[in-house]
Write a structure and sequence with these properties.
The protein is an alpha/beta fold. It folds into 2 domains: 161 residues, Bordetella uptake gene, domain 1 (D-Maltodextrin-Binding Protein, domain 2); 121 residues, D-Maltodextrin-Binding Protein, domain 2. It is built from 12 helices and 11 strands. The strands form 3 sheets. A 6-stranded mixed sheet has the order 2-1-3-10-4-11, sandwiched between helices. Helix 2 crosses helix 10, helix 2 runs antiparallel to helix 11 and helix 6 packs across helix 12. The longest helix has 30 residues. It is globular. The termini are far apart. The relative contact order is 0.16.
Length: 339
Amino acid sequence: MLSQQKRRTRNFIIFWIGGLWIFLFVSIHLAEAKDPDYPTKPVTFIIPYAAGGMTDVVVRPLLEAASKYLGQTIIPINKPGGGSTVGVVTVMNSKPDGYTIGHFGGSAVTVTPHYEDCPYHDLSGFTFILNYGESVWPLITRSDAPYSTWNEFMAWAKRNPPGAIKMGIVSARGRGPSSLAMYQLEKREQIQITYLVQGGAGESLTKILGGHINLETSMTPQHLQYIETGKLRILAYMNETKVPGYENYPSFEKLYGILAKGYMGVLGPKGLPNYVLEKLDDAFAKAVKDPGFIDIMNRNGNGVRYLNRAQIDKEVKELFQTYGDLIKALRAEDKEKKK
């Protein structure tokens, strides 16, 4: 049997070792819970599109402005591929310390996860930090078309055979918020549209000017130029965000209650600490008011739309469910047609 002295010594050692582990555990978690000096090094920002593209052009001025308020440089890194999922997955798999964040668009988080080829099928791996803008989706036609208003266009569509409307889209039917909005429109108005997938906004512009399609929904500085010179005209908007100076056209939301959101936001991996979220949100909330950023958004036909993390998280998750239901219905219809 151990002597009383040895038992005391043993108990003291056990107590000392246990206390040391508790101290280290608490200290580590306290350090993780609060880092008042964040960020202490540059922050990497993943742009899931190629350099020089529309998103790249507007994001870089935003990051430059946000860097001033964050106190560290935000470095843009382009990671295109997979319809933006390559870049989004890079952010999802990064360490949740606030030093790797990135851009997200509407399709990447509300539509693409519902398809089998997407590497993620829910939103649990992400933290939505904020939304800074919205893609503008006008329905554009040639100015010499036999209709000049949305109502005239719908009357023309119903007078003509099914499929007479030829619309250029940049992604397959049902693979983006804009095409899902058109799917809902077909149901409401009992019309049928022929969709022609284009290689990009440039090809759509060429086709609409050449009369090969009679409707499209891209918006670039080149489109805006042709609208300003009177060669193209806007009939309506899919979403509520509109081109400055061309606001007096109806939206699908007002006409039909159809929602189409072209998010331009910032996200990070799940598990970002609150102190990181607060600092990032504060920096970007100030950056969206920067005159240089606002100017380049307007010149590229995009709208500035700031939503904080609670607002964007709520919107995205609600729309994720809505689009999921629509995609199931569309798939069922397509399957029935093939029988």
